[in-house]
């Protein structure tokens, strides 16, 4: 133990050294004498880089080194969250990153396949102090013993699984199991589906896979960023510490309601409306609706446009021809609009030319090409003509289009139309993929943005010219000697190049830039609770990941959303056919066998073929149930009785009961963004998805949908209780009566 303590202390000393160096770098950059835009840009870049490094160094502080492998032949390596080298000339490795190939045997070696290992050691620390060592002898012919060999090889894993929860997910870097390691390091480049029952580590494995990919493909992923999609903000808060604790911060976490930049989904849909909006047919429905916006006047009811040289008649024939021409361009609506406008102007010019230049005696038209060009210019400048074009082929934003569509839906059966009809109101999660679809159909007409950028650039050139003129004026004063004069700014740089240099470089990280850019192509996307996403949501996600480098995590048995796609083939066939890898996790690390038995029996009563994951732990504590006439009081009493138990407690209850229950739970975290670090939390079944707590109280299970109840029953790491007023739902039983 003493030797390991000395080694670990030395590691922390080195970490402190690197940290001090990075801090000094930041300070030096701030104090840098260079002035002017260029120097500021360089300083900002250095500060951003060093600050990123500092954040990573600070976040790996806890449990920096957690293992050691001794190879046959005497070499050994310490394994840690990040790799650290000595400051000597050879840059000797002090601790090896857990993701490095050399560290792999730490996770995979067994007595049967020792992978060249003699011994594997787990080092447990508290702060910077080594508190325990656990050794496993892998080479049984080796007689040397350390005294730290435990009888139970899984002691470290079981201790981690048994520990009280904190409301935040922790990394599992010290105890990754072999089947999990294979998924984390899977070489598969395309879509990898990780399926497994509750508590099998799907989420935590996917997060470690993200960390692994960020290590193995650092170049690419630092540029393109990783996106992690999770079901709700509470879940993202719950998993938010895992990657930073592994030294990785360049990741964007988002809920499905946040995937259209500039819009936050705060509204709610009925289940029926969400299901309809998620159907794949909605892509065609919206495409048809966009075509509906490309109009023609009714035959016999033309648009008459006043013009100095006589009225112009924009009739069905002209509009129809211009529309066909514009549609032939096969461009999104807004980008095809100029084609429509040019054709209209062209046809109206011909109309006017025919009239003005007509020879009353039937000879050729009097007007030549120059006259026609002049007429065309006049028509193109006419605001009335533009108003008519806008009426027939309006420039649209995705928000406008969808708002108009939802106010008066079309191209659907009448009952569906009534289900989704909505005038104004807030955007919902199911609207987000529709907005994205609309954006695709409309196309980003960036001509206005480009014109603005050009104007800004011109302004900078003018500003730079001003600076140059000033420096020219002060030349004799500032540059006294010949050499300086030769290098005077105006001699070596023109205003345009100087303006470019002055342009503010984009210092945001790839993840920050990706968050603001709808057309961003991510290097890798991880989707948790993937079974919940609708076909339309998948269309959005696939657009964000043209390389299809994705890890999808889910459990079809936990599907709650009526629009959820469920089967992987249905989700993936349109994009990758059957070219995806499918792996399963079968061990439940969370729920003890006593609780899993109850949950599995309930689901089997719904689906007799259901195969639950097998629990790795048993607590000897049976779940309990109590019937009551006064739920708020019974819940408050049960929570008070659990106060002596360690860890966190969640009350999972239907939303409509929350108001009443809260009167007896004044300190509970609750609401839209509940604070999960509170000792007591009140959640709806949907909010509880993906989370875990030491103690779970399920309230009024008869009001839960079956899949929601299965999720609720499988959230506990230690204890489960059920409080109900009426009969328990069919199939739910096996409790002790409390
Ligand atoms: N190898 C491991 N070492 C330590 N803890 C582990 C290990 N694997 C899983 N766990 C723990 O098991 C619990 C369940 O993991 P996780 O939440 O990833 O499961 P899940 O499959 O996503 O569950 P659900 O589908 O119910 O959301 C977590 O606390 C996780 O840290």
From TrEMBL:
<dbReference type="GO" id="GO:0000725">
    <property type="term" value="P:recombinational repair"/>
</dbReference>
<keyword id="KW-0547">Nucleotide-binding</keyword>
<keyword id="KW-0067">ATP-binding</keyword>
<feature type="binding site">
    <location>
        <begin position="196"/>
        <end position="203"/>
    </location>
    <ligand>
        <name>ATP</name>
    </ligand>
</feature>
<keyword id="KW-0347">Helicase</keyword>
<feature type="domain" description="UvrD-like helicase ATP-binding">
    <location>
        <begin position="175"/>
        <end position="592"/>
    </location>
</feature>
<protein>
    <submittedName>
        <fullName>ATP-binding domain-containing protein</fullName>
    </submittedName>
</protein>
<dbReference type="GO" id="GO:0043138">
    <property type="term" value="F:3'-5' DNA helicase activity"/>
</dbReference>
<dbReference type="InterPro" id="IPR027785">
    <property type="entry name" value="UvrD-like_helicase_C"/>
</dbReference>
<keyword id="KW-0378">Hydrolase</keyword>
<dbReference type="GO" id="GO:0016787">
    <property type="term" value="F:hydrolase activity"/>
</dbReference>
<dbReference type="GO" id="GO:0003677">
    <property type="term" value="F:DNA binding"/>
</dbReference>
<dbReference type="GO" id="GO:0005524">
    <property type="term" value="F:ATP binding"/>
</dbReference>
<dbReference type="GO" id="GO:0005829">
    <property type="term" value="C:cytosol"/>
</dbReference>
<dbReference type="InterPro" id="IPR000212">
    <property type="entry name" value="DNA_helicase_UvrD/REP"/>
</dbReference>
<dbReference type="InterPro" id="IPR027417">
    <property type="entry name" value="P-loop_NTPase"/>
</dbReference>
<dbReference type="Pfam" id="PF13538">
    <property type="entry name" value="UvrD_C_2"/>
</dbReference>
<dbReference type="InterPro" id="IPR014016">
    <property type="entry name" value="UvrD-like_ATP-bd"/>
</dbReference>
């Amino acid at each position: 133990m003493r030797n390991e303590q000395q080694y670990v202390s030395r590691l922390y000393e080195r970490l402190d050294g690197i940290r001090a160096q990075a801090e000094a770098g930041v300070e030096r950059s701030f104090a840098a004498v260079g002035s002017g835009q260029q120097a500021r840009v360089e300083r900002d870049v250095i500060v951003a880089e060093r600050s990123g490094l500092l954040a990573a160094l600070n976040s790996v502080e806890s449990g920096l080194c957690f293992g050691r492998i001794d190879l046959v032949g005497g070499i050994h390596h310490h394994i840690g969250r990040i790799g650290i080298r000595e400051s000597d000339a050879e840059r000797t490795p002090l601790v090896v990153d857990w993701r490095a190939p050399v560290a792999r045997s730490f996770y995979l070696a067994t007595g049967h396949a020792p992978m060249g290992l003699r011994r594997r050691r787990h080092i447990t620390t508290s702060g910077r102090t080594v508190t325990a060592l656990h050794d496993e002898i892998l080479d049984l012919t080796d007689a040397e013993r350390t005294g730290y060999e435990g009888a139970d090889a899984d002691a470290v894993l079981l201790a981690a699984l048994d520990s009280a929860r904190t409301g935040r997910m922790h990394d599992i870097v010290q105890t990754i199991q072999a089947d999990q390691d294979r998924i984390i390091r899977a070489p598969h480049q395309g879509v990898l589906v990780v399926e497994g029952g509750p508590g099998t580590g799907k989420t935590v494995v996917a997060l470690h896979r993200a960390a692994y990919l960020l290590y193995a493909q650092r170049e690419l992923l630092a540029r393109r960023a990783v996106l992690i999609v999770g079901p709700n903000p509470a879940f993202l808060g719950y998993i938010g510490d895992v990657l930073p604790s592994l030294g990785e911060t360049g990741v964007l976490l988002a809920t499905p309601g946040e995937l259209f930049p500039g819009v936050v989904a705060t509204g709610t849909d009925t289940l029926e409306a969400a299901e309809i909006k998620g159907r794949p047919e909605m892509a065609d429905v919206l495409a048809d609706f966009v075509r509906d916006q490309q109009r023609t006047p009714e035959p016999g009811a033309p648009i008459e446009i006043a013009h100095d040289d006589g009225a112009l008649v924009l009739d069905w024939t002209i509009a129809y021809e211009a529309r066909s021409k514009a549609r032939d361009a096969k461009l999104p609506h807004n980008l095809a609009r100029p084609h429509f406008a040019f054709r209209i102007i062209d046809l109206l010019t011909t109309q006017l030319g025919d009239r003005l230049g007509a020879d009353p005696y039937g000879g050729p038209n009097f007007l030549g090409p120059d006259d026609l060009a002049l007429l065309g210019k006049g028509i193109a400048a006419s605001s009335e003509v533009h108003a008519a074009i806008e009426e027939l082929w309006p420039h649209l934003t995705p928000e406008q289009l969808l708002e108009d569509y939802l106010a008066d839906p079309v191209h659907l059966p009448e009952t569906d139309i009534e289900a989704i009809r909505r005038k104004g109101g807030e955007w919902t999660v199911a609207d987000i993929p529709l907005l994205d679809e609309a954006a695709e159909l409309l196309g980003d007409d960036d001509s206005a943005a480009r014109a603005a950028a050009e104007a800004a650039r011109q302004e900078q050139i003018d500003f730079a010219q001003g600076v140059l003129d000033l420096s020219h004026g002060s030349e004799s004063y500032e540059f006294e000697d010949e050499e300086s004069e030769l290098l005077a700014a105006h001699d070596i740089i023109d205003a345009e190049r100087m303006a470019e240099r002055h342009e503010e470089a984009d210092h945001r990280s790839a993840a920050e830039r990706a968050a603001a850019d709808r057309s961003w192509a991510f290097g890798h996307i991880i989707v948790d609770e993937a079974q919940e996403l609708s076909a339309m949501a998948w269309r959005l996600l696939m657009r964000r990941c043209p390389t299809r480098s994705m890890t999808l995590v889910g459990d079809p048995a936990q599907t709650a959303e009526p629009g959820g796609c469920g089967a992987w083939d249905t989700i993936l066939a349109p994009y990758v056919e059957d070219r995806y890898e499918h792996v399963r996790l079968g061990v439940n690390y969370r729920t003890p066998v006593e609780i899993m038995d109850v949950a599995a029996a309930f689901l089997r009563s719904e689906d007799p073929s259901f195969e639950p994951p097998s629990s790795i732990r048993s607590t000897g504590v049976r779940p309990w149930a109590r019937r009551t006439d006064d739920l708020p009081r019974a819940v408050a009493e049960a929570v008070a009785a659990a106060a002596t138990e360690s860890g966190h407690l969640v009350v999972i209850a239907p939303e409509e009961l929350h108001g009443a229950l809260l009167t007896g739970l004044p300190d509970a975290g609750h609401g839209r963004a509940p604070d999960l670090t509170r000792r007591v939390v009140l959640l709806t079944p949907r909010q509880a998805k993906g989370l875990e707590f030491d103690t779970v109280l399920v309230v009024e299970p008869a009001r839960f949908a079956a899949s929601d109840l299965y999720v609720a029953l499988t959230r506990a790491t230690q204890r489960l209780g059920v409080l109900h007023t009426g009969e328990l739902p069919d199939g739910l039983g096996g409790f002790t009566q409390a």
